[in-house]
Amino acid sequence: MLKVQVSVGDPLALERDALVVAVAEDEERLKGVAAKVDRKLNGQLKKLREWKEVKGKLGEVTVVHTLGLMQPRRIALVGLGKRKELDAEKVRRSIGSAVKALNKIGCEHIAVALTISLGKGLRRMLWDEPLRKQPFSPVTNIAEKVQGMRK
Question: Could you give all domains of the chain from N- to C-terminal order, each with its CATH number?
Answer without folding.
Answer: 12-116 (3.40.220.10)
